[in-house]
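Q&A FORM
Asked by: J.P.
Topic: structure of Protein SYM1

PROVIDED:
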Amino acid sequence: MATFYKWYNARLAAAPILTHCVTTGFLFGAGDVVAQALSPDPALKGRYDYIRTARMCFHGGVVFAPVVSQWYKLISTRIVIPGRPMLEALARMAVDQTVWAPVGIASFYVSMGVLQLHSWEQIKQELQTKWWRTMVGNYAVWPAVQFVNFRIIPLDYRLMFVNIVSIGWNAFLSWFSATNIERSMETLEKAEHKLEEFEAKVEKRF
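REPLIED BY: S.T.
REPLY: Here is the structure written out as tokens.
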């Protein structure tokens, strides 16, 4: 870990944008590897879609990383509340989640659609059917993560922190975007039902 830390610091000093792009692309791809390995879709059993992983790497490294690295710099310099670090982190998180999160999720589906050579009508349908459900999932995860990020993590490491946390989130995004809406919603409903059954058992026990 110490060796990686030294290497990462050296790369950040020499080429910060390139370093962010390469590491983000790699970790987006890692999320897709997890998604394909754990996918409940029987159509994926026994085969691996390398092109799908490449699309995730491209979006992470070419679309997501350059924009988000500059976004973090922007809100870190524009949203400053001297002497109120908790309030400052909360304000930055609120702006991030109300401004960037909706745009970032939309850009993901547009990017995936373009890379798959979908028509604009297909991309719009994807956004209409999946964007809001993804936003609901986003707000279950990212407000708390981003509060910690803006409160504790130094600016140069915020994107890396998000990328590491994002492996699981990117796995969800990859699976949800690659699955047709009927099958994905059915799988989510089954997962929610199992979670409700588990919570009910826990309540009975305690």
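FOLLOW-UP: The chain has a mean pLDDT of 86.
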